[in-house]
Amino acid sequence: MAQYQAVLDGVFVALGDSTRRAVITRLGRGPASVSELAREFPMALPSFMKHIRTLEANGLVRTSKSGRVRTCELDRARLTVVESWLDEQRRTWEGRTDRLEQFVTDPEENL
Amino acid sequence: MAQYQAVLDGVFVALGDSTRRAVITRLGRGPASVSELAREFPMALPSFMKHIRTLEANGLVRTSKSGRVRTCELDRARLTVVESWLDEQRRTWEGRTDRLEQFVTDPEENL
DNA sequence: GCAACACTGAGCTGCATGGCTCAGTATCAG
DNA sequence: CTGATACTGAGCCATGCAGCTCAGTGTTGC
Q: Which among A75, A16, A3 has a CA at the least distance from the CA of B15?
């Protein structure tokens, strides 16, 4: 449970940066190497690498090195935790409506 | 466009903290006052208020003060920007598959 | 073999964030 | 009127993050 919260923390924070979101969008079109990705962003390579590491650390991309090239690939599964959380919230609202309905139809039950 | 990115930045960062997510979940069950919310968290009130301000600044909750009590209410609309972004990503993947299909069926078209 | 390439590591800076305290203001209850 | 309540503001501290540079290391191509 605390684990789950930590995952959400990481994923949301990772997504809270437009560079990293852009990388995700780019990788949605297929794998790419680090320098291939970096070319699109106006920052030094080591700075860019930090973003890749952040994405990797939070499970949003997988990377592998072959020779001197590190290839990055999107791990779409990780994005589903965001969807799950959103669904969870929706269920809360709906739960609320249910209880409101219940209250309207049978006030004695509540309290 | 840059505006849109800034909104996403703010919303994702705001959601990247378990205290703030918990507040959102709690507010999903209905409005509440600041101290009512704060009671559930092991931190000083001014610290907690910062979270509320962050959520408000990013449009995730609306607050209003009447008398000495500030009441907080969830603004669900703001959460839809997250869903939109996720949909956008999905469309990218699907677009990719489309183009892959197209490539398979008609390689000449692609370069 | 050597140059170019693709990272990688170390370490610095400035700024933002999350927590704290302490002191203040405004409102409400009695 | 007074005390309690519900914030609010100022300001401090530690940590973390995003960017930088500079100096490597390991691979590849000629």
A: A16
CB contact under 8 A, A79 and B86: yes
The nt closest to A42 (CA vs C1′) is: D19
DSSP result, A32-52? EEHHHHHTTSSS-HHHHHHHH
**CATH architecture label of A2-110:** Orthogonal Bundle (1.10)
> Any idea which residue has 């890749």 for tokens?
A52
pTM: 0.86
pLDDT, tens digit, 9 for 90 and up, residues A47-105: 999 999 999 999 999 999 999 999 999 999 999 999 999 999 999 888 765 555 554 44
User: Nearest nucleotide by C1' from B52 CA?
Assistant: D7
Strand C nucleotides in reach of protein CB atoms, 7 A cut-off? 5-11, 17-23, 26-28
> Pick from B58, B57, B52: which is nearest to B27 by CA?
B52
